[in-house]
Amino acid sequence: MRPVRTAFAGALLGTLLLAGCGQGGDSTTASAPSSPPVTTPDAATGGFPVTVEAGNGSVTIAERPERIVSLSATHTETLFAIGAGPQVIAVDNQSNHPAEAPKTDLSGFKPNVEAIVAHKPDLVIVSDDQDKVVAELGKVNVPVLLQPSAGDLDEVYEEIAELGAATGNKAKADEVVSGMRTAIEKAVAGAPKAGELTFYHELDQTPYAVTSKTFIGQIYGMFGLTNIADKAPDAAGGYPKLSAEFVAQADPDLIFLADVKCCQQSKDTLAARPGWKNLTAVKQDQVIQLDDDVASRWGPRVVQLAEAIAAGVSGAGAN
Fold it and tell me: Domain of 167?
């Protein structure tokens, strides 16, 4: 049976990413599952009932859901990517992609069970069990899938497959996963060897960063980049708060900013920070502005993150 994965426990990171990145960030994870996520034979053909091994255990869905509520910006993106968009009748207030998603004032961070139930859902999808929302919805017989933040790409693919099975869109979900695998492999293969290149990924201008043990950090690792945050005095569960002096001393070759939309950060704002104008990445114009949402979610658009990293590595290699 698939191990139950738990979301990153630090409320700090969730608060940090809420304003700028839409959906709270990555998570720590148990070991990879030893069995397929979908356990019902009918899942192979998209039939029902179907049982999915989710973060909240075995969840059996009797019929194809037609009134889905998503309280996760990541899973909203996935649902629309796999063709389940017409089944989604409400999404949370952080779900801003795609534009046609039926955004409401529902919150995944402070879920209101009465407000959720008012939409008459036949399936609710969450990425965190805030305020014990899974159990509370269970009391009123509303099926819930808890799909926590992915710890690596295999878990990304697994969750997409699970959502495909749970919504009756397995074939399209498999197609999405296959396309993601191909695109990411192409991005990695097409980028020059990073060699000794170092990088800094900024979550916000405090500054908070990510280590190689996080989901985001593992994506960078595929390109052979060296993460300066790995030497932080306090790893803080993978999301260390770095001092300006630490970053200046590390002098990264590449800087990736995931606080552009939220906080308007750029090469110019970095240069204005004490001691940062002479950073190699700033002087050589190797500051890459990411889409905050893409850099904080683990759905199908993780391909865009990989491609942005590839472009950064290619640019550094040209200098």
Answer: 11-182
Alpha-carbon separation of residue 263 from 87, 148, 276, 299 (angstroms): 34, 26, 18, 23
| Structural domain includes residue 6 | no
pLDDT at residue 170, as a whole number: 96
Cβ contacts of residue 99 below 8 Å, gap of 6+? none
| In a domain? residue 187 | no
For β-strands 57-61 and 50-54, DSSP reports them as: antiparallel
CATH number of the domain that residue 126 is part of: 3.40.50.1980
Which residues make Cβ contacts (< 8 Å) with residue 287, sequence separation at least 6?
255, 257, 266, 267, 270, 281
| Residue where a domain stops, chosen among 182, 210, 244 | 182
Query: What's the pLDDT tens digit per position in 144-201?
Result: 999 999 999 999 999 999 999 999 999 999 999 999 999 999 999 999 987 889 999 9
The more confidently predicted of residues 1 and 308 is: 308
Residues 99 and 211 in one domain: no
DSSP H/E element including 125: strand 123-126
Window from 34-38, 73-77, 91-95, 218-222 with minimum mean pLDDT: 34-38
Would you give the DSSP letter of residue 33? P
Domain count, the chain: 2
Whether 106 contacts 112, CB under 8 Å: yes
Residue carrying the six token digits 């945050």: 229
| 116 and 203 belong to one structural domain | no
pTM value is: 0.86
